[in-house]
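Hi Y.,

Following your request, here is the sequence exactly as I used it, all 322 residues.
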Amino acid sequence: MNPNLLFDFTVDKEKNTIRVKREFAADLDLVWDAWTKPEMLDHWWAPKPYQTKTKSMDFREGGSWFYAMVSPENEIHWCRADYKKIEPKKHFSGLDAFCDEDGNVNKEFPRSLWNNTFSENKGTTTTVDITIQYDTLSDLEKIIGFGFKEGFSAALGNLDQYLEAQFQLRKEYKTDNRVRVCTYLNFPGNTEEAFLFYQSVFKTQFAGGGIRRFGDIPADASHPPVADSIKKMVLHVQLPITGNHILMGTDAPKEMGFTLVQGNNMHICIEPETREEAKRIFDELSAGGNVTMPLKDMFFGAYFGEFSDKYGINWMINYQNK
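Below is the corresponding structure, written out as tokens. Let me know if you'd prefer a different format.
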């Protein structure tokens, strides 16, 4: 953790509470999403070497999050959180508990009431103020004895790394949500060579932080590590060419299951102004076609999906989350 960021862990045995205040180097929108979207929670919630796997989530008052924490030996601990009150991007509360694989609460372990409050600090950092309430002092002492402080601190450390990677990518790739249309090119391993050629022709500079490589992908326990043979291949590159048009590209190596032929090596990339418009275009344009990547939030900070329409034309929809 960055030593300049706030971290406070306090136990109050008179009130049977634990209070954690943690500051993160990311904006409020991103931190809120990281706590309320299952595809993001699964990246960081469980302390290493455990991994979180969401079975279902209904983030609303009266809804619940049902998930498992899985060890490398495939030992599974089922958990559920029942949401009570939600004020978007300000606060949410809920009851947390261990349970069985059907969601029935395990009464042998203390159930706790969580109150989480979010506040942005001048758009550069966000503080999460967490109060965890237990029914009795013995419940509080039991959970502390299980190593809660160490485990939860490790999980928040995971979140630090995840937010840092996402926030950096968001800042580099697109700084606003102005509508634009791009052309996205796939290559079998020579993207860098091709884009250096295009750069020499159009005499422009790479945008969005330059050439990003597969070795830059943040570590993710749910996926195998990137093979050494492809770490230097191009993950993403942007080059303004002419008429305000952007050329984007990536390597699509066979080692990751790609097979390129003429016809699947080029996409039209649409970047709408809003998330709602991104979903509308994706749903309507993909009707009757073949969805190759469902529209969802991605590690690089975008709401992204791709498909071939019913006429065989390849499309990408990319809304950059703020």
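The mean pLDDT is 84.

Thanks again,
Q.
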